[in-house]
Design a protein that fits this description.
Length: 417
C-alpha cells in the first residue's frame, strides 16, 4: 500500500469527536446518574488503603487520563518493558499526584520520538479501519481473515506516521493557536455558546478536558495541514506541463452536444410486427411534415412511456440514445421531423426541438484544472519522499511482540525492543 493510501486508511479509521447527544424532551429533566450500590466493586477503599502509596507506572502510561512523559523528570530511564529484569508492571519509580484508584495503566506498542502509541489506540484504529473496509459487504471467513491481516499489517505504521506529522506541525507552527481555532470551530459546529455549557459537555458527555479535546482535534487536523503546506503547495507545475495535460485529456474539457426532441413510439417487437405497422409509421411522419400538431399526434398515437410528457425527451447527449436514433438525430436540423426510425421495440418518429453543438473549454479557462491534475499526478512521489524524510529523522521503537504489524519494507527504519 502506498503512502497516500495509508494516509487515507488512517483518515477513515480515526474516529471524530463524538457528536453531542440530543437534549431531553421539553419539560423533562436530564436523568440523574444512578447511585452506586454499597456492594459495588468500585466502592471507595477504606482509609487504610487510601493511605497506601499509588502503584508505580510504566514509561508512557497514563495517570488519571493524562499521558506521562516518556521519562519522569529527575529519574533514571526505566528498563524497556519486556527486557530482562523489567517485567511489565515492575516498579520504575514513585508516581506523584494522583490517588491509587485514579491510575490507569496502558500497554505501549511503539515509541515515536518523545511520544507513544498505545495498544488501545492500535486496536481501536484497526477495528474502525476494518469496519469501514467491510461496510455493506458479505465475505467468507477466509476473506475476513485476509482483510484482518491486511489491516493489521498497515495500521501501526499509519499511526506512527500520524504521530510524526503532528510532531512536524508542532515544530513548524503554533499548534496552540491552531488548537484554539479548532475548539472555536467545534463549538460553533455544535452550537455551544457559553463556557459553562462547554465545560458541562466536556465533563458529562465527552468525559475529557479542554486540553484533551484540543489534542484530539489537532491530531486529526494537523497531519492534513502539514501535507497541504509542506507537500501539495510545494509542487510546482509549469505552463508546458499544464498544456501537455490539456492536449492529452481534451475529452475532459469537452461538453458534448445535446438534443431535445419529442417522439412518437409505435411498439412492434418482431420483424413481422414492424412490417405490419410500417405504413402506419410512414403516415404519421407525413402528417407531422405537413404541419400537424406533433404534441397532439403524440397524445393520440404514441405507445411509449414518454406519452405522459407529450413525448418530450432531453436535453440528452445523442451518444446516450439508441444507435439508430442517435444517427438520425445528428443528421437532422432543429425543427425538422425524422423517421420512421427502427428501434429494438418498434418504430420511432422524432421532431427535433433544440440542438446544442459540442464545445470545448479553452485552455486559459481550463488552466487551473490542468495544473491541479498535474499536481495530483506528482503528489505520490513528493509525498513519499517527504514521509521517508520524517521517518529517517525520527527515533521509532516498536515492541518485538508487534514486529509482524510493521510492513517488511519499513522494518529497517524501526528499532525493535
Amino acid at each position: 500500500m502506498s503512502w497516500p493510501l495509508l494516509l487515507a486508511a488512517l483518515a477513515v479509521a480515526q474516529a471524530e469527536t463524538p457528536p453531542l447527544p440530543p437534549p431531553p424532551p421539553a419539560g423533562q429533566e436530564q436523568p440523574a446518574a444512578p447511585e452506586a450500590s454499597p456492594d459495588a466493586t468500585d466502592a471507595k477503599p477504606d482509609a487504610k488503603k487510601e493511605e497506601e502509596p499509588p502503584p508505580e507506572v510504566l514509561r508512557g502510561t497514563t495517570v488519571g487520563g493524562t499521558r506521562l512523559p516518556t521519562q519522569p523528570s529527575g529519574s533514571a530511564a526505566p528498563a524497556p518493558p519486556g527486557s530482562p529484569g523489567a517485567a511489565p508492571g515492575s516498579p520504575t519509580g514513585p508516581a506523584s499526584g494522583p490517588r491509587a484508584e485514579e491510575l490507569r495503566v496502558e500497554e505501549i506498542v511503539a515509541w515515536v520520538n518523545d511520544d507513544v502509541v498505545l495498544l488501545s489506540e492500535l486496536r481501536t484504529t484497526e477495528q474502525q479501519a476494518l469496519s469501514a473496509m467491510m461496510k455493506g459487504k458479505r465475505v467468507s471467513s477466509g476473506e475476513m481473515s485476509a482483510k484482518v491481516a491486511e489491516v493489521q499489517n498497515q495500521m501501526l505504521m499509519s499511526l506512527i506516521s500520524n504521530r510524526l506529522l503532528v510532531q512536524e506541525a508542532e515544530r513548524l507552527y503554533d499548534v496552540n493557536e491552531i488548537g484554539k481555532d479548532l475548539i472555536k470551530r467545534w463549538r460553533e459546529r455544535n452550537d455551544v455558546k457559553s463556557d459553562e455549557q462547554f465545560d458541562r459537555i466536556l465533563k458529562d458527555e465527552l468525559h475529557m478536558s479542554r486540553a484533551d479535546l484540543q489534542d484530539k482535534l489537532i491530531s486529526g487536523a494537523a497531519p492534513d495541514y502539514v501535507i497541504d503546506t509542506q507537500v501539495t503547495r510545494s509542487i510546482s507545475v509549469s505552463d508546458k506541463e499544464a498544456r501537455q495535460y490539456y492536449d492529452e485529456h481534451r475529452a475532459e474539457f469537452l461538453t458534448p452536444g445535446q438534443v431535445t426532441f419529442r417522439e412518437i413510439v409505435l411498439l412492434a417487437e418482431s420483424n413481422e410486427q414492424k412490417r405490419a405497422r410500417m405504413d402506419e409509421a410512414v403516415d404519421l411522419v407525413e402528417q407531422a411534415k405537413r404541419g400537424a400538431d406533433f404534441a397532439k399526434l403524440v397524445e393520440a398515437e404514441s405507445e411509449g412511456p414518454s406519452k405522459s410528457l407529450g413525448g418530450l425527451i432531453g436535453p440528452v447527449a445523442p451518444s446516450d440514445l439508441a444507435e439508430s436514433v442517435a444517427e438520425a438525430i445528428v443528421k437532422t436540423p432543429a425543427g425538422q421531423v425524422v423517421g420512421p426510425i427502427p428501434t429494438p421495440v418498434g418504430w420511432q418518429i422524432v421532431k427535433i426541438e433544440q440542438k446544442l453543438d459540442e464545445k470545448i473549454t479553452p485552455f486559459e479557462q481550463a488552466r487551473a484544472r490542468c495544473e491541479e491534475a498535474v499536481r495530483q499526478e506528482k503528489f505520490p512521489v513528493v509525498y513519499e519522499k517527504f514521509m521517508t524524510g520524517l521517518w529517517e529523522a525520527a527515533t521509532v521503537e516498536v515492541r518485538k511482540d508487534y514486529q509482524s504489524r510493521m510492513p517488511k519494507n519499513m522494518q529497517a527504519k524501526v528499532v525493535f525492543r
